[in-house]
Structures are given as structure tokens and as C-alpha cells.
């Protein structure tokens, strides 16, 4: 039986030129989102990444002082694979990111610097589809990003000398949402998405005993295939889109 048509995801808006992706950790964008990023940069769009932390608490066998710089390097390499050269780190502490005005201020400043029309972030809700508990960093950063899209446009909130307000964010797109509304065809960007996630090699080798490429490919294609069931059968990357 076919799904009712109103259950289908709509295509993402195309009338924009700059996007800013704001997430908590190295690899947050590569676990599902970077096939979309690759096709957007192919189309000439400018995309920058802002990471709240360096993911320094992500590897049990490696001290944060060693882990942070390594994961930063892996993140820069994985961004480059999908055409993203600007990667910034806000230096909040991995694992204990606090939702609040300090985080909102830092994200609003990044939005004012980059002046994006589209802001991308990761699931800000308590769970992944009611199945698995989300991490506090994702919840804090996702929520603060949704809030900062508004903060950035108000000159009286977090005023900073030399930084003009930016009220041009038209949408915030939340990746990994269990209630997505929109999607992007994942096919053109899929090979680079695989290579991009593979750049997080140290992290992945600790995470799984499987061959890294087999693990990454089956994770990303499986996710895109499942999403595609609601996008005319094409492998897809889904977002929950909040318009402003
Ligand atoms: Zn994460």
C-alpha cells in the first residue's frame, strides 16, 4: 500500500546563497547531513560550520588535551571533502555544554559574522524519535541555535561593537528530527558524504570493530534509503524546517 501523499517530505527551499551549520561536536554533521551539504556547495552555495566544542571528551582512551586537536583536524578534513572550508570552534566544553545566554551569545555572533539565510542544526529534542535518549550537548546547542537565529537580528540583544545585527535568517533546518518536513536528494552527494564521515577515522575506529568504510557506507545509505521512502523513493536527507 502506498503512503498517503501528505506524508511526503517537501523539497528544501532553493532560493538562498549562504548557510551556517551549528552543531555541538565534530561528526554531528557527517552522521547523515553531509550528502545535502555536498550538493549545496556543488550548486555554488557558501556553507560554513560552527562547532560548539572540539569533541575532546569523545574518546575514552584518549585524554582531552590530545583528543581535541585531533578531532578538530578530522573535522576540518571532513568539511573540506564536501566543499566547506570555514570551520570555527566556540570552545564550549564537550559533554557539559550549558544551554543559556553565553551559548546563545556565541551562536548569535557567529550568525552575525556569516549572515546566512539558512541555519542548520541537529536534533534539539530530548530523544531520537522516542527510542534513544539524546545527549545534553545536542539538546543545548540545537535549542540555542533555534533561539540565536532570532537573537542575531535584534540589535539590543547581545550587542557587540563592530558586529551588525543580521535579521536575514529565513529558515532553521533541524537534521536528525523525528518529525521532518523537508528533504534533499542524497544521491549526488552520497559518495562524498561517505568519504567525509570516514575522515573521523580515529573516532570511528574506537566506535566499531567493523571495517570503517563498510560501517560508514551502510549507516549513511541505510539512513538515506529509509528517509527516501517519504521522498518519492529517492535516497534523501531530511530536515524539520522552521521558517522565520
Ligand atoms: Zn554529537
TrEMBL record:
Reply yes or no: does the keyword Zinc apply: yes
Give the matching InterPro entries: GlcNAc_PI_deacetylase-related, LmbE-like_dom_sf
Query: GO molecular-function annotation terms?
Result: hydrolase activity, acting on carbon-nitrogen (but not peptide) bonds, in linear amides
One Pfam family this chain carries?
Answer: PIG-L
Matching entries from SUPFAM superfamilies are given as: LmbE-like
Which terms are listed as keywords in the entry?
Zinc
Query: What GO terms in the biological process aspect are recorded for it?
Result: glycoside metabolic process
Give the domain of life. Answer: Bacteria
Name of the protein described by the UniProt record: PIG-L family deacetylase
What is the species listed in this Swiss-Prot or TrEMBL entry? Streptomyces liliifuscus
Q: What phylogenetic lineage does the species belong to?
A: Bacteria, Bacillati, Actinomycetota, Actinomycetes, Kitasatosporales
Amino acid at each position: 500500500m502506498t503512503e498517503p501523499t501528505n506524508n511526503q517530505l517537501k523539497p528544501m527551499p532553493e532560493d538562498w546563497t549562504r548557510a551556517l551549520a551549528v552543531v555541538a561536536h565534530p561528526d554531528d554533521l557527517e552522521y547523515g547531513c553531509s550528502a545535502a551539504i555536498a550538493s549545496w556547495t556543488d550548486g555554488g552555495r557558501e556553507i560554513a560550520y560552527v562547532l560548539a566544542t572540539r569533541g575532546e571528551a569523545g574518546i575514552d582512551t584518549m585524554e582531552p588535551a590530545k583528543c581535541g586537536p585531533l578531532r578538530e583536524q578530522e573535522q576540518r578534513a571532513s568539511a573540506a571533502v564536501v566543499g566547506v572550508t570555514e570551520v570555527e570552534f566556540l570552545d564550549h566544553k564537550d559533554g557539559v555544554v550549558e544551554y543559556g545566554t553565553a551559548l546563545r551569545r556565541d551562536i548569535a555572533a557567529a550568525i552575525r559574522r556569516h549572515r546566512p539565510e539558512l541555519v542548520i542544526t541537529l536534533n534539539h529534542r530530548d530523544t531520537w524519535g522516542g527510542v534513544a535518549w539524546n545527549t545534553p550537548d545536542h539538546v543545548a546547542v540545537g535549542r540555542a541555535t533555534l533561539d540565536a537565529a532570532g537573537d542575531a537580528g535584534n540589535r539590543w540583544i547581545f550587542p557587540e561593537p563592530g558586529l551588525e545585527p543580521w535579521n536575514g535568517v529565513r529558515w532553521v533546518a533541524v537534521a536528525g528530527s523525528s518529525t521532518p518536513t523537508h528533504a534533499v536528494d542524497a544521491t549526488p552527494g552520497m559518495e562524498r558524504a561517505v568519504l567525509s564521515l570516514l575522515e573521523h577515522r580515529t573516532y570511528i575506529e574506537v566506535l566499531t570493530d567493523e571495517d570503517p568504510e563498510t560501517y560508514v557506507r551502510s549507516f549513511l545509505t541505510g539512513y538515506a534509503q529509509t528517509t527516501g521512502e517519504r521522498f518519492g523513493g529517492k535516497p534523501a536527507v531530511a530536515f524539520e524546517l522552521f521558517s522565520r
